[in-house]
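This entry is listed below:
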Amino acid sequence: MKLREFFLVGLLGAGVAQVALAGGPAIKPALPSYLITNDDLPPKIATSGTFFTIASGGLLQNPNRVSLGGVGAGGGYFAFNRVSVLSNSTSACAFLSIGGSGEIGAVDIAAQQDIGNFSAASTDSGIDNGMGLVNNGTYLYAAFSTSNTIATFAILPGCGLQYMADISPIGKHKGNVKGMAVHGNLMVVTYGEGSIESFNISAGTPVSNGDLQNATGFNTDRYPNGVDITPDGHYAIFGDMSTSTTLEVSDISSGKLTKTVVYNVGTASNSTNAQLSPDGTLIYIPNTGNGKVTAAFFDQTTGKVTPGCVSSTLKGFDSNWTFLSSPVTELNTGTGSLLYVAEFGSISGIAMINVTSSGGKCTLTEAATSPVQAPNTTVLLSIGVYPPRGF
């Protein structure tokens, strides 16, 4: 679909148009911080994204619905990131997957307007379990659950996308992609049936590094789903689908996956998602089976993981909502201050969890004002923040 006509964006609070200085590029205006939901409304219902302003103390205010002109998938894989945020010197963009339509909505964050929806190949489809998104600042990657493909898009000035090509990766046990992470020229994926693989993305389109392998946890019914990569690109951290809180770590400093090391860090069940704090010292893990959140300590020098802390059961579990996913932090420095987690259910919302960490001890405590209802969806699985984490 063609990009809609570009428009001038007002400088927030300044009342003057953003213009390019003579002989220089346009300058991105200063923006508030936002929490962004992918409302992912099921087929036959026009879907949207919702932008909350993050106020003092991490409070979420003034939700603004942005129509995306397509239909979502109404749920799907927990480890799929359906919101991918880009921030550079000239652009502030939120890319939201539209699973039912097989498209990506590109939203200009300053204007909070969808500038256009972009498609990959006609055979790429994500209607069954949605579409996952990641970007490295130059390329955006979309994993389609139905066609079992990963499409590559070049990111254009002004938040536009240009489709390049797609690939059809498959796991050792015939699984399709459940989770993705990128860092520089490396992409790491999980297949949800116990196997993992990495790809070289230096030329844009992913090329396998030839390291498709079973994760160590596969031998004991622990299957990597979520994946994150450390700020320096040294380690890949996997969140396992398991009966306890289980993480696996692979040294990827060689540019390829190595055998994972398994760490059991708690008794709460299902650690499908795993997200590093901005400073890389904590790993946040929603335990969707128990309605809790766990934090584990991470040693960036050795790659070792040690137990940290676990929250109480979050408000409304098994009454208003049933699943947790997509941990993101208020700030992109330190431990992130406040932690946000998506709640999927008849009353979907965003949990807000206060984090403390000092002297090898931590606490996770749900805020008094938590949760904040997501007003435009009952199928919330993915959230993002602007400005995004720096890696």
Summary: The chain has one domain: 34-386. The first strand starts at residue 34 and ends at 38.
